[in-house]
Backbone:
């Protein structure tokens, strides 16, 4: 094989590659520029060869690049070589695009570097679209949960309203008595104010839950997240004739979560329990939501009931989409809940409760001190 | 026997609703006992105490409808006014079918509730008066001799004295004496009244049996 032929074959090989392939020397001067690189960057090979590789980089990456080459040449310790990294590349027309760069080093008296560049625009778009759709789905399913709860919430709103009306009527009648007990009337007036606040709270929680369709994560106390649901869960539990009992451990580390999403998960699991309990028609049915810190340092939320539990025949596929035992269920509640917990770096699993019932276990990583 | 003053029982698990109702009833001079659970009501309920019951339909533990069924099983006659947080028609129908006195949706006007309570208390008085009357009739019936009971059975079937005398193998004069004793012992002023008393006794035997 002659040298010329070998070099022609090499060029053919480079031009056939899907990735942009660029060879540079230790000073960053472009030595070779394949056809894919021409298409990616809009430079002809003849224009690019001989110029500094910096023309292919966004301003933010450029400054850093020379330093990286120098450091490698001086220390021999690679930072990019063999690993690859996400970079922002710049075309001839100075527009930028996301790219994945991997680098190989050719050692010798005159070291050279081979860069492989892949355009990540489409992949990133698909990623963003997938995220957007996932967020949307979570929001829609959250709205669906809120909708399902509307009847219980209407019931719960009627309680403070009924109390307010009744207290007001009673005050009216007490004051009309010949010798009214003013203290009694004052106590009732205070109750009226408290009940109005209670009604307002229910509406505010509901609106908070329905509103946010943006994912915003921040470190917070998981107990607060659950306590905010108290009125909603209480109302729903009442509507199903079930006792709701929170058992929240104090002194837990914070978790970095999207409040509305985690509330959606808890509500979803509580609602599942309530529906199962309502069907089971027990003497004293209850749902317990508890929190604790486990040995691995994770924060655990348990949603447990004393109902019949999950039938063994569907236990292994209940987290699969469209697996529902409820006549009106979408079969998406559990899979979406699990997705939400997973995107928080946590897990959602089922275990039978003792002596009977279902127990869903959410584990979330504790926020490290340096992340706060 | 002197009639005891009526008590209005309130069973609702919501503290605010329960306490506001108690205050309202107090403001109109009614004696109220308010309890948070159906179980507490059942364990403290005295069937001899006249009154009525204001009952929330949905409660954790024993629901209002379940409490109503328990009371029915015990043969309690206390009128029940159900209150509910939302217009749950099937539940209202079920409650009424099981003999609920009335049904009110929260929030309600005070006068609506007070009117219903007054009607429920009136109904309770009537119920209790009928029960008392029936037990008196039963006592009187039990004071009759076997012969007098035979005569009573024949009289209420409309048999003339002559036929009764033949059937019992006694003189017509003897039948007349027995018959007069029966009317006197049963406190009956006419044959029609005697027949009505016996029908009521039979009815009670039917429904109670």
Residues:
């Amino acid at each position: 094989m002659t040298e010329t032929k070998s070099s022609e074959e090499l060029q053919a090989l480079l031009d056939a590659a899907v990735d942009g392939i660029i060879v540079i020397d230790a000073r960053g001067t472009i030595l070779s520029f394949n056809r894919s690189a021409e298409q990616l960057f809009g430079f002809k090979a003849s224009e690019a060869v001989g110029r500094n590789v910096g023309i292919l980089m966004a301003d933010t990456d450029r400054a850093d690049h020379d330093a990286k080459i120098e450091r490698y040449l001086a220390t021999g310790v690679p930072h990019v070589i063999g690993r690859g990294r996400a970079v922002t590349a710049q075309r001839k027309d100075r527009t930028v695009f996301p790219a994945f760069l991997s680098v190989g080093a050719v050692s010798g008296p005159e070291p050279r570097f081979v860069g492989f560049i892949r355009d990540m625009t489409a992949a990133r778009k698909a990623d963003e679209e997938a995220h957007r759709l996932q967020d949307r789905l979570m929001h829609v399913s959250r709205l669906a949960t809120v909708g399902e709860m509307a009847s219980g919430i209407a019931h719960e709103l009627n309680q403070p309203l009924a109390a307010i009306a009744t207290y007001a009527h009673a005050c009216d009648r007490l004051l009309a008595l010949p010798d009214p007990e003013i203290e009694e009337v004052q106590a009732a007036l205070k109750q009226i104010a408290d009940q109005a606040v209670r009604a307002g709270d229910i509406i505010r929680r509901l609106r908070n839950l329905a509103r946010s369709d943006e994912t915003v994560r921040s470190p917070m106390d998981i107990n607060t997240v659950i306590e905010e649901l108290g009125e909603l869960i209480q109302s729903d539990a009442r509507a199903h004739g079930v006792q709701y009992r929170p058992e929240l451990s104090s002194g837990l580390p914070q978790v970095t979560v999207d409040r509305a999403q985690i509330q959606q998960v808890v509500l979803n699991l509580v609602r599942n329990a309530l529906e199962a309990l309502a069907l089971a028609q027990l003497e004293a049915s209850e749902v317990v939501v508890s929190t604790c810190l486990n040995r691995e340092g994770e924060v655990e939320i348990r949603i447990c009931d004393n109902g019949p539990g999950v039938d063994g025949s569907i236990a292994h596929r209940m987290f699969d989409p469209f697996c529902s035992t409820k006549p009106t269920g979408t079969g998406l509640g559990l899979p979406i809940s699990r997705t939400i917990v997973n995107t928080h770096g946590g897990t959602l699993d089922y275990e039978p409760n003792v002596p009977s019932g279902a127990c869903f276990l959410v584990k979330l990583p504790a926020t490290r001190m340096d992340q706060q | 026997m002197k009639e005891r003053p009526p008590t209005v029982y309130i069973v609702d698990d919501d503290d605010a609703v329960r306490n506001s109702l108690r205050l309202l009833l107090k403001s109109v001079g009614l004696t109220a006992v308010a309890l948070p659970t159906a179980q507490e009501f059942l364990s403290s309920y005295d069937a001899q105490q006249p009154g009525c019951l204001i009952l929330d339909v949905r409660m954790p533990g024993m629901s209002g409808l379940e409490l109503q069924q328990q009371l029915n099983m015990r043969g309690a006659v206390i009128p029940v006014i159900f209150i509910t947080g939302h217009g749950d028609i099937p539940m209202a129908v079920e409650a009424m079918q099981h003999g609920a006195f009335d049904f009110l949706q929260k929030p309600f006007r005070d006068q609506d509730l007070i009117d219903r309570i007054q009607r429920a208390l009136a109904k309770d008085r009537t119920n209790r008066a009928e029960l008392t009357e029936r037990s008196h009739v039963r006592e009187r019936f039990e004071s009759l001799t076997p012969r007098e009971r035979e005569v009573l059975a024949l009289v209420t079937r409309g048999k003339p004295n002559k036929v009764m005398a033949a059937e019992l193998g006694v003189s017509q004069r003897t039948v007349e004496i027995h018959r007069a004793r029966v009317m006197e012992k049963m406190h009956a002023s006419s044959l029609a009244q005697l027949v009505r008393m016996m029908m009521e006794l039979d009815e009670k035997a039917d429904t109670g049996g």
